[in-house]
């Protein structure tokens, strides 16, 4: 029965997957990560790929979330539309293999700007569960696509996606700016300069070209990668704060390196924010869903 | 002597080159275009590539402009910094082969935001020469990088570059939006929708993702390429108008297809603009420089 026995929680994304063996009482027992994201799983190969995780952890039930529930994943699970809560997510789980494997649905926004997410909803509820964000708080998930999740009375009320990370990668890999963008972006003076420009409403399409013109004119030293990163993250933060009706304290849920850059941008914007480890938030969210499943099962029996 | 004999004018860019045989009295006699831009010329191969043009048109003096004068071109010619006029450009020409081949310098902006251009300055002066833009007018050059050129008393007073076209190409070729962006962008309803959003200050990083979320949620038909193009061009036009102290009438100097999209965006922004053929503007600008060379030579003799 869910909530009484060990289970395997999997954050299964496009590029990577991370898995944990979880004991409802003692929490995380083991963890495992590899690059067997959707792009690396051959057609029809998800069953084998999931069995592989079971052979590592033991033959426990599995709860999956993330892009594994998308049209490019194992099975497409319909989005829950916001406002939505944990009970909605639990109800929307798609069960396979006699109920021993479930995929948690993503969340969509229909009203206003159409938007979607898969995986971040679990992290957002997890951050709430951990007490790291208020029931009316704002959660910023940096990443290839950053996701801004608005909470309201403990429900997910809205989501907004920004293509920040992807555009940074495209510019770095294959644009006229590439050769000036090969450093790892860091929270240095060039980064701050980009953030400040963006926070003051500078135009992105134009400001990005500064990376090239400053280089050509050699007017001064500019760390192109950090400057461009600052412009993009600053622009992201500016729009996210404007759209998200900023609250007292913002939770940044993401990996350490990227979260640190966002934290700096929030500081420049004079907003209080703090970093929540994305794995911790994910595991807490999955456990909250499992707790909910247990209650439902108890009430039914 | 320049201004009395025929010459070959070449707009030599990164990807393409276009050349014209020009008679100072009768104007364009012949034209030729190929894809022998900088990227296709082997190291040390510019002399041969230029000879090839002479073998087509005859052994006339040549005047070159565009990226051929950049660090990646035949010879790096220092920028003239604005404010700058035709006389400055003529003075800055780098002469080779005993004065039978010259490269016109580009223009840079040092004050305010650093910026640069090579080739558009010739077109801007050409548009002025043709009477298609006022001496205090604003010229918008759409392209991989769009360039906004501010004229003041017939001088080039400022330039602003936007990475509009390049970001569109990157998104179309290799992003999560690619499969929804394979149409040729057109001035249709989706384009207008993108333009209007951008003109109203919508956030680019977020609005672009609509291409994907509208597709996933199938809420309605959206031509992704035209919508994204509208967002980017609308954003470009909004910033260009804001920075350029908009005048009564704006000249769009570019190829027909792209210029038509910009014209539509100006219409949505309720600004009067008109399209000037980029080749005509270039040839007129080169002829104006040649006229200037003639006067200088006459005064010197």
List the helices and strands and how they pair.
The structure is a homodimer of 301-residue chains.
Chain A: E1 7-12, E2 17-23, E3 27-34, H1 46-57, E4 62-65, E5 80-81, H2 86-91, E6 94-96, E7 101-103, E8 107-109, E9 115-117, H3 120-129, E10 138-141, E11 146-152, E12 155-162, H4 164-174, H5 189-199, H6 204-207, H7 210-217, H8 224-243, E13 250-254, H9 256-268, E14 273-277, H10 278-300
Parallel strand pairs in A: 1-4, 4-7, 5-8, 10-13, 13-14
Antiparallel strand pairs in A: 1-2, 2-3, 6-7, 8-9, 10-11, 11-12
Helix pairs in contact in A: 3-10, 4-8, 5-8, 8-9
DSSP strand count of chain A: 14
Instruction: Work out the radius of gyration of chain A.
Output: 20 Å
How many angstroms separate the termini of chain A?
11 Å
Helix and strand element order of chain A: EEEHEEHEEEEHEEEHHHHHEHEH
> Which stretches of chain A are low in confidence, meaning pLDDT under 50 for 5 or more residues running?
none
Q: Average pLDDT value of chain A?
A: 94
Q: Specify which chain pair forms the largest interface.
A: A-B, 42 and 42 residues
Helix content of chain A: 25-40%
Task: Please describe the biggest sheet of chain A, giving its number of strands, its sense, and whether it closes into a barrel.
Answer: 6 strands, mixed
Q: How many helices of chain A does DSSP assign?
A: 10
Q: What structural class should be given to the helix and strand makeup of chain A?
A: alpha/beta
Label the overall shape of chain A: globular
Oligomer: homodimer
Q: Output the strand order for the largest sheet of chain A.
A: 3-2-1-4-7-6
Tell me the fraction of residues in β-strands of chain A, as a range: 15-25%
InterPro entries (chains A, B): DGOK, DGOK_C, DGOK_N
Keywords (chains A, B): Kinase, Transferase
Protein name (chains A, B): 2-dehydro-3-deoxygalactonokinase
GO molecular function, one term (chains A, B): 2-dehydro-3-deoxygalactonokinase activity
């Amino acid at each position: 029965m869910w909530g009484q026995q060990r289970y395997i929680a999997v954050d299964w994304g496009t590029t990577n997957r991370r898995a944990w063996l979880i004991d409802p009482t003692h929490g995380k027992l083991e963890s495992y990560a590899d690059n067997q994201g959707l792009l690396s799983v051959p057609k029809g190969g998800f069953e084998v790929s999931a069995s592989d995780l079971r052979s590592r952890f033991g033959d426990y039930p599995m709860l999956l979330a993330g892009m594994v529930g998308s049209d490019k994943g194992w099975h497409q699970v319909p989005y829950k539309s916001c406002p939505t809560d944990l009970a909605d997510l639990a109800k929307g789980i798609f069960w396979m293999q006699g109920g021993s494997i479930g995929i948690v649905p993503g969340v969509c926004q229909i009203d206003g700007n159409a938007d979607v997410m898969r995986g971040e909803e679990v992290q957002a509820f997890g951050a709430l569960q951990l007490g790291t964000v208020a029931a009316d708080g704002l959660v910023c998930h940096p990443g290839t696509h950053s996701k801004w999740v608005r909470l309201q009375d403990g429900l997910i009320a809205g989501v907004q996606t920004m293509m920040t990370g992807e555009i940074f990668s495209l510019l770095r890999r294959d644009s006229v700016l590439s050769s000036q963008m090969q450093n790892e972006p860091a929270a240095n003076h060039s980064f701050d300069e980009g953030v400040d420009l963006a926070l003051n409403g500078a135009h992105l399409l134009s400001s990005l070209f500064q990376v090239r013109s400053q280089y050509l004119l050699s007017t001064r030293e500019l760390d192109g990668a950090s400057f461009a990163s600052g412009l993009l993250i600053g622009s992201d933060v500016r729009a996210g704060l404007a759209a998200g009706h900023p609250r007292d304290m913002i939770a940044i849920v993401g990996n350490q390196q990227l979260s640190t850059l966002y934290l700096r941008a929030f500081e420049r914007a004079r907003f209080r924010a703090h970093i929540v480890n994305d794995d911790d938030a994910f595991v807490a969210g999955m456990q909250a869903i499992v707790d909910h499943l247990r209650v439902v099962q108890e009430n039914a029996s």
